[in-house]
């Protein structure tokens, strides 16, 4: 009896199904299809595959806000992989990074400046910050793009938005669109009115992405008077000074927002960026 036949009997699969399973496991999981105990080999591999976890982000404050729609307690529910596994993923957008958590706290802190405003999130990943803005009464488009933004990542982002829409009693305006930095002409044509607030978290990690990112940010800031860009930044491979050099050349100015809102020390910073003449 061949190993294949023995496995087939143990697993209760037809020979064709087992062959297909072995081919899949060999191509996609790098497993040995001839392993004596194939079932155990598959099981062990499945145990090391990142599984989705549910994350609940609660934002609360005692201080009442002046704008209607800006709630004093907001919850965002997401599902993704744990950040510790993020580096091993096909897309860095399948988890929530520190900079996004920090920026989200800041956005909640300034929620009366988000309610009834138009907001776009760049490089949204699972979309924590954009979804929060929609829950705070903003009219939001969450975007992501580039080589890493697979159909799986797009599906994950849409899933997060719909999941939060379904548990939100109030109006929840949140669209999902593809937008690759530096390739924004068609997008801006479809959104001529621009956005009041541009947000992005943990998008500075590849030197070659800085110029396209800033070109899209500049185009978005030019599309609407007094628009501003709020960046959640964690130091990775790219020094922030390199970013500001490039921003300066594009007529942008920036300031670091003092961290007097999170109530705890964070490994991330928030910057506000505007067109120079509007300072
Ligand atoms: C480190 S993740 C941050 C995700 C999310 N903002 C967070 O902080 O949790 C970087 C995100 O930028 C996106 N990205 C990378 N290159 C891009 C590009 N050229 N255009 C648009 N998005 C891009 C990735 O797909 C990913 O979602």
Automatic annotation (TrEMBL):
Q: Where is the secretion signal located?
A: none
Give any Pfam family that matches.
Methyltransf_16
What GO biological process terms are annotated to this protein in UniProt? methylation
UniProt entry keywords in alphabetical sequence: Methyltransferase, Transferase
Task: Return the Gene3D superfamilies for the record.
Answer: Vaccinia Virus protein VP39
Q: Which GO terms describe its molecular function?
A: methyltransferase activity
> PANTHER family given for it?
HEPATOCELLULAR CARCINOMA-ASSOCIATED ANTIGEN
- Protein name from the UniProt record: Putative methyltransferase-domain-containing protein
The organism of origin for this protein: Tribonema minus
């Amino acid at each position: 009896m061949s190993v294949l036949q023995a496995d087939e009997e143990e697993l209760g699969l037809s020979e064709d199904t087992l062959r297909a399973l072995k081919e899949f496991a060999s191509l996609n999981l790098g497993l040995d299809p001839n392993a004596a105990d194939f079932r155990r080999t598959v099981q062990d591999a499945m145990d090391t595959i990142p599984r989705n976890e549910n994350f609940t982000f609660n934002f609360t404050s005692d201080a009442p806000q002046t704008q209607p729609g800006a709630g004093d307690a907001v919850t965002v529910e997401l599902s993704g992989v744990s950040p510790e596994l993020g580096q091993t993923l096909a897309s860095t957008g399948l988890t929530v990074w520190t900079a996004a958590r920090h920026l989200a706290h800041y956005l909640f802190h300034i929620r009366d400046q988000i309610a009834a405003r138009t907001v776009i999130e760049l490089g949204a990943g699972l979309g924590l910050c954009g979804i929060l803005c929609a829950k705070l009464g903003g009219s939001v488009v969450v975007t992501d793009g580039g080589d890493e933004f697979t159909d799986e990542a797009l599906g994950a982002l849409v899933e997060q938005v719909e999941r939060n829409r379904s548990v939100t009693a109030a109006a929840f305006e949140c669209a999902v669109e593809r937008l690759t930095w530096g390739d924004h002409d068609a997008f801006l044509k479809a959104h001529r009115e621009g956005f009041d607030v541009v947000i992005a978290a943990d998008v500075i990690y590849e030197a070659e992405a800085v110029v396209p990112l800033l070109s899209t940010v500049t185009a978005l800031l030019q599309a609407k008077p007094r628009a501003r860009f709020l960046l959640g930044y964690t130091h990775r491979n790219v020094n922030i000074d390199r970013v500001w050099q490039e921003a300066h050349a594009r007529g942008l100015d920036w300031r670091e927002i003092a961290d007097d809102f999170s109530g705890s020390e964070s490994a991330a910073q928030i910057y506000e960026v505007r067109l120079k003449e509007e300072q």
